[in-house]
């Protein structure tokens, strides 16, 4: 069969798709990857065929654009709160989940995120591609709902492949329940409205699977995923770090315990910077009786003076090669980094930022006993972070619980084992004549 992957032009989102794309290709299926032109080099470097769609996403220019979209969308509300507050799709406190908050959330998210990433020109190109190439299955990034529209317009089966916790699915279930409890004239649904008129441009109508897929492929361990009633198919997370070379110093076992410090790619690429203070992080770790490998680039090190003696800096090291030698990792909580740590059974200290699902994932990791996070708001205190790292290094329970989650991941069907499942689901759902 022919399989089209649709991904946001951000390498961490694409990296999650690569192992499944490889598995399908190795099983004899035709595979293509569609994304904004920004990602073409990363796709071809992974040995996959790229099809650019729409205009450049231009992440380096998008932070200010995103802020303006947030504010403009919030202005449409009767009593607009802070636009950034309405981006908190991870909000799950019952006292906050009022009808007004949920309406505002989907108003801002639709305009600032979903509609932005699936711009009209992008969806036009996706529909033209699916109608010309005729894929049997479209697997789309949860932020690229244009992939679902293109699948519907061509009769292909389609599924979401999650990057992170299924916050969209959980929030959508809550919003639909909230709408159903209101009089019909008060049921405003900006997400369905946008997807509805988008789909109508290609002669198809809106159904809820344009938001959440005919099914969802989820690499998050079952014990850490939020509950939803949506049909989902688990898949083992297989780390992919892009083209890389294992440095010579990593080929020998460390002389003492090793701690990885990384701020990941998501915040650097998608939102334009780090929220944690690099000097504070290095100060915290400089007094540890451990070797610290810090994967930081020149920009992140610009405000750092003299490095602590126990810190080795490397612009990039493939985590899949580095983590097996580590006793702990300190990071900002991004999906790829956190899942790589879980896949290798490495205890985590998460210094979370406000990007997407990072706070709830940090809470889940802490609740599982496989890691810790700083307590309370405010600036990071070096002494507190140092104490957290010492705890995950010295208390055996964290290594045991990290190993337990690693075993859970290893027991999940691999991408290769998922291929026949996808073949059966595709045969059931596709409408191609």
Describe the protein's architecture and organization.
- The chain has 433 residues and is of the alpha/beta class.
- The chain folds into two domains: 2-236 and 413-429, Glycogen Phosphorylase B (Rossmann fold, 3-Layer(aba) Sandwich), CATH 3.40.50.2000; 248-410, 3-Layer(aba) Sandwich (Rossmann fold).
- Helix content is 44%, strand content 12%.
- It has 17 helices and 13 strands.
- The protein has helices at 11-26, 40-45, 59-75, 99-117, 120-133, 146-154, 167-180, 190-200, 209-212, 266-271, 278-285, 319-322, 335-343, 358-368, 382-394, 396-410, 415-429; strands spanning 2-6, 30-35, 49-52, 137-141, 157-161, 216-218, 232-234, 258-262, 291-295, 311-313, 328-331, 348-350, 371-372.
- The protein has a seven-stranded parallel sheet with strand order 3-2-1-4-5-6-7, with helices on both faces.
- The longest helix is centred in the N-terminal third of the chain and has 19 residues, at 99-117.
User: How confident is the prediction overall: mean pLDDT?
Assistant: 89
Return the string of H and E elements: EHEHEHHHEHEHHHEEEHHEEHEHEHEHHH
Number of domains: 2
CATH class of the largest domain: Alpha Beta
The rounded Rg comes to 22 Å
Annotated CATH homologous superfamily of the largest domain: Glycogen Phosphorylase B
Strand content: 5-15%
Summarize it:
It is built from 17 helices and 13 strands. With 433 residues, the chain is α/β, with parallel strands linked by helices.
Describe the SSE topology:
Blueprint: E1 2-6, H1 11-26, E2 30-35, H2 40-45, E3 49-52, H3 59-75, H4 99-117, H5 120-133, E4 137-141, H6 146-154, E5 157-161, H7 167-180, H8 190-200, H9 209-212, E6 216-218, E7 232-234, E8 258-262, H10 266-271, H11 278-285, E9 291-295, E10 311-313, H12 319-322, E11 328-331, H13 335-343, E12 348-350, H14 358-368, E13 371-372, H15 382-394, H16 396-410, H17 415-429
Helix pairs in contact: 1-17, 3-4, 5-6, 11-15, 15-16
């Amino acid at each position: 069969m022919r399989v089209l992957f649709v991904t946001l032009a951000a390498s961490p989102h694409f990296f999650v798709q690569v192992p499944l794309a490889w598995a399908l290709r190795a099983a004899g299926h035709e595979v293509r990857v569609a994304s904004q032109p920004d990602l073409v080099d990363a796709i071809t470097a992974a040995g996959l065929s790229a099809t650019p769609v729409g205009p450049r996403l231009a992440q380096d220019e998008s932070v200010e654009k995103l802020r303006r979209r947030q504010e403009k969308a919030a202005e449409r509300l009767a009593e607009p709160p802070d636009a950034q507050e309405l981006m908190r799709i991870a909000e799950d406190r019952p006292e906050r989940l009022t009808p007004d908050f949920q309406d505002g959330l989907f108003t801002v998210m639709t305009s600032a995120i979903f509609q932005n990433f699936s711009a009209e020109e992008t969806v036009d190109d996706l529909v033209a591609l699916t109608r010309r190439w005729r894929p049997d299955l479209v697997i789309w990034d949860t932020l690229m709902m244009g992939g679902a529209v293109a699948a519907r317009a061509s009769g292909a089966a389609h599924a979401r492949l999650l990057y992170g916790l299924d916050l969209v699915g959980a929030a959508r279930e809550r919003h639909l329940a909230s709408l159903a409890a209101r009089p019909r004239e008060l049921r405003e649904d900006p997400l369905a409205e946008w997807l509805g008129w988008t789909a109508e441009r290609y002669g198809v109508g809106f159904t809820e699977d344009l938001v959440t897929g005919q099914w969802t492929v989820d690499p998050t361990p079952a014990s850490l995923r939020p509950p939803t009633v949506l049909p989902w198919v688990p898949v083992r997370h297989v780390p992919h770090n892009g083209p890389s070379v294992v440095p010579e110093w990593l080929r020998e076992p460390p002389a003492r315990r090793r701690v990885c410090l990384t701020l990941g790619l998501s915040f650097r690429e998608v939102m334009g910077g780090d929220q944690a203070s690099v000097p504070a992080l290095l100060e915290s770790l400089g007094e540890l009786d451990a070797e610290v490998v810090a994967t930081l680039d020149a920009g992140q090190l610009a405000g750092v003076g003299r490095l602590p003696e126990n810190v080795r800096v490397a612009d990039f090291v493939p985590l899949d090669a580095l983590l097996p030698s580590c006793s702990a990792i300190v990071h900002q909580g991004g999906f790829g980094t956190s899942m790589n740590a879980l896949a290798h059974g490495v205890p985590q200290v998460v210094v979370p930022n406000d990007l997407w699902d990072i706070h709830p994932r940090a809470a889940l990791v802490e609740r599982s006993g496989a890691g810790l996070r700083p307590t309370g708001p405010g600036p990071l205190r070096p002494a507190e972070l140092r104490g957290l790292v010492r705890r995950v290094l010295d208390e055996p329970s964290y290594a045991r619980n990290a190993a337990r989650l690693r075993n859970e991941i290893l027991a999940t069907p691999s991408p290769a084992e998922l291929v026949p499942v996808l073949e059966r689901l595709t045969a059931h759902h596709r409408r191609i004549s």
